[in-house]
## 1
Amino acid sequence: MQFIFSPDWFLGNDVLIEGFSFLVLATFFFLCWKYYKLSKNKNMLYLGTGFFLIALAQLATICTKLVLYYDTSFIQQIGQMVVTYHVVKSVDIFYQLGFFFNKFLTLIGLYMIYRLPDKKKFSKDFLLAFYFIIISAAASANINFIFHITVLVLLVMIIQNYLDVYRKNKSKNTLMLIIAFSALAFAHFIFTFSHLPLFFVAGNIIELLSFVLLLVLIIRIFRAEYKTKTIRKK
Amino acid sequence: MDIIRDMLAMVRDKGGKIKPTHLMYKANLSHNQMKLYLQELEKNSLVKKSVADNKNLILLTEKGRAFLNKYAEMKSFEETFGL
């Protein structure tokens, strides 16, 4: 089972990119929480939860990769345990769990964001979707591209939702959001070929670009100015 | 909340101070409605009353300005995500 797709010269850079992604996603969660407290709009809370789960997923993969890439005392302890107790599979289980949580949390977070426009967010097919997400995350342990294809499909559906939003509001911010998600979808398409080192690197760079766009979006939101509406009727 | 932020924006657009009657007409509120909303704004320290040259004025506080900025951010965020 392959855990490392990064070429040696790129080792660690993917962790930095995931760290940046985590910060951007955590900022979105923080903003959703702040605005939910102001407006009590439940959709805001729901969106924030989606971002929070994806941020947690990035954290899971960062922790797993730091252990995987670098010789830490934790690795040495596991190695010692392997030698002493012949527990050969303990290291593998740690990595499998870490990457499983990354994939599972990412898929759940994206699914929540996809279901945002629906009035019944936790309808009966949520359980079915939850089951398919677990299957996808588990199967991705051996067949990595299954996860990336699932993410790609979810992102395409999310982009369609935001295209509908853009048709109504014609907002530049929504357009920027669509472009960012499209870049992320393209990154995951590239990741389906991540067994080839250059594709892994390209996917990471495109993913970084998508999160830079999301950061620019955050800055634009902070710079929003309120304009007085016209006089309302009594 | 929309009425409250509209009122605050009207005060801001008048340089941070406005006569109560001007605010009442601009916001298209009755006297009683205006009184209720002003009480709410004062209670939350978003505005304060002042007397200058024998004229009653409503002043926008720093907290009121901060509220307007935060509200604008929130509205922009809601519009972006179609919430």
## 2
Amino acid sequence: MAGLFLAFNACSTSNSNEEDLSLTPINTVVIDGYTVKLSALDKLETGDNYLFWELEKEGKSIDIETMTVMPMMDMGTMKHAAPFKTPKRYKERNRYFEGMIVFSMPSGDMGSWTINFTITTKDGQTIEGSIEVNIASSWRFTSVKDKDGKGYFITWAKPSVPKMGNNNLAILVHTKESMMSFPAVSDAEVIIYPFMDMGSGEGHSTNFTAPVSKGNGLYEGSINYSMSGTWTTSVQLVVANDTLPEVIFEYSVKAK
Amino acid sequence: MKTIINLFLVIFCLSTASIAQKRTITVLDKMSKEPVINAHIIDGDEKVFAVTDVEGKVEISLEREIFKIHSLGYIESIIVLKETDDIIYLIPTILQAGQSVMVYAYGEKKANIKDYQSTQSHHTLDHFLDNIDGVAMIQRGAFGWEPSIRGQSDQRMNLNIDGMQIFKACVDKMDPISSYIESNNLSKLQIDKSGSSVAENGNGNSTINLISKKPDFAPFSLHLTSGLRVPDQYRVLALNSNYATETTAFQVSGSIKKADDFSAGRGSVIPNTQFNKMNLNVGVKQLLPSKNSVEVNFITDKATDVGYPALLMDATKALANILRVQYNWRDTKAPFQLTTAMLYGNTIRHWMDDDSRDVTQREVMRNMHMPMYGSTGTIGSKITGEATALNHRFEWFLNGFMSEANGDMWMISLDPNVEDMYIYNMDEIVTKNVSLGGRHSFLLSPSFLVKIEESASFTSLGTNSDNYASMFESLYNKAYAPRNRMLFSGSATAIWFPKDNWSLSLSSIYSERLGNHIELFGHYIYNYVDGYFYDGNPWLKSEKSVNFELNSTVEVENHSLSLSVFHKQYFDYISGKEVSDISNNDFQFKQYQNLGEAIMLGGEVRAINRFWDNLKTEVRASYTYAQNTTLNDPLPMIPPLKGLNSITYNFDTNNITASMEWAVAQTRISKKSSTESKTDGHAIFNLVYTKSLFDGSLSAIVEFKNIFDTYYSEHTSIASIPEAGRNGMLTLKYHY
């Protein structure tokens, strides 16, 4: 009986760690007998994407100790990386490692994305390789340059599916130091203005809270959508007293 | 021979016993101590079984311990006869219900300064209400006028049917509750202008209670009405019928009405003023062996193709289903007595669109169609009774209801590249209320009566939609929870009789109200008076009001005069405040806020005089001064000094009434809290001729309104839509 109880608790613990995850398989590669599986919350698209890595061998889950990644866009004549967060264990005792990558352009004729990775298992084995990913275009990513030509990446992280009512707003800001380095920008002022164009340019805004920096390039605020339909939100960065040109996000707000 | 003798003895004994079981009582006027002549003594089956003589005397069988006495000019009394009762006093109706006025519709006959009679049941209820002093109708076209009492409408007054709580479904106020009942299925109106009936209503708001026709234990009757009006081709066909057996009574009334666009003065046709309407009211009443009774009443109403020229849209369909079940207890004078217990339920559904409008030219919401739908569903109960405590008899009222309101709107652009937009004006908004009230009368002396009423109610307002709630959380930066509030109201009325037929009364009323479901949880609701979109505010403070009313009424045989003056002050007055940061030239927004104080003061006068038994004159006038004292700005939609004068002459079977409806210019307009325009004064003249045929079983009525084809509009007509110009109507009424 005690064994049954322990087994039941063990299963419960495992399930409770994963029950809130509904993942979409992205791709799988086999390296040296290890199967590296990549999943995500949804299909990958430009903007921020949360990626879930797991490792298996002969059908059994293998615990990952550490992991590093490097997203890479191969455009033929040139290559570049993208802003990312190094994967970490998703939850205690969970088999997933979770990371985030801001894909700055879609896959297609211009080039293709791969993610180079290095995984170290708990028993000291190292698995290195790359995995191809297909990135779709979305409205949630754009970029702007300052007067000196320095590029800034602006990602609409939340809400990914805006709905009528109050929505928590999260915006990520990164800058381009080099083709392989895109550090977060945490000291900018982010000015937004949501607007509902109801036709012929006539429309109105709604009440909102301007995003403020929470560190690591994350800015949080809120927008209270008064109706469904197509909304635009202009975003303007002020970095070191330099007001950058305005960029516009255009998206559809659902009723519920 | 022996058999005959025995039979004689039996008859003698029976008749002797019968004589021995009768007693004589005298019915006197409580005030004057004069006999009340021709008072009807009515049994539990509503049948008259005796009438008082010239000395006010009547013989009553001792077996009849409980009965009713009814006489014109007196409050109907239920009597529980004791052995020592030889004299019964009737209280003159002059004492009745403070300043409530009773308006009797089709089939009722009363003759009191507080009674109004609708002799023209073929007209809409709206026109009838509009001519009552102190009442004005807010108009959006030819249909669905919204009553206001002393400048207070909607959330600041109670508008009920048979005491039931019913919520309109249209957020644009196209369907006030009065639009779901017809004058031909209306028995009477109870209008409490001062709001002193706190115990029954659960608050101190002014009240219009529309009392529908009920089954009556009376001989079979049938009323048929048919009418045609030009030039708007208004057609009406109405039926009323009542049938009763010993223990069961049935009643049915219904009407079909249809009108095309009406023409204003000088012939200009006002488009989008047409309407179609069907109304049916059926009821059954069952007397039980215990002399208690139960009644069931159902009203269904359907309006289609209703134009609203003052609004952006027209109503394509409005449906109401209203069910009421009521149990009535006979009066036992027990220490704790149940009088009535009513259970009710109703659903209101309302569809509107602008498909027939040119949406490219209007000032707001251009280049899009906006179909809207609204619905409300309400269930409730109303229990009344009497109780005795500390040798004091009082009436008590226990009311409760729960209602859910929903409303939404699509915005479909003419540009196919623009995504359809959708909005919730009300999303799963739930109102719950329970109230307990008491009414006490103290006859301190034969000429001094004091009435005290109090009410405590618990109201809860909230939304079951988390998304919808989040919108208000963001607007006001507060965490949402349903708004629960205890509300208290009370009134005190002192009535003094310097002379037998002269009363002076002073009423004071304190009332609290939580904002209604639209003031707290409405979203993006367009106000056609000021052109702003309104958002509710769940965190409003309760609005309070203190009202004082002084009335003097004199009523002698052929002349009567009633004069009322009032002063009402609002605290934490709820009104819209502009939200400038999201408003622009095309869209302007307001949020409900508590905006300081407001006052309303004014009065009404009504005089009725009869001369030579066949000539009657009537004068009605009313005025309201209303000011937001915090903003130093007149309140909007306040009617100017207005009135009605009429003269009626009867000869043989003919009746002629000439009347003048008038209003002075309204120059006190709201500029800060609204954007009103001034309105010119006007006077229109009407003539009605009625001919009774075949001993009164058939009546022909010819009516001309606005004879001189005056072009005018009421100040309470939104967008200053003009009133109807010259029109004529022929009505035939058959009565069996």
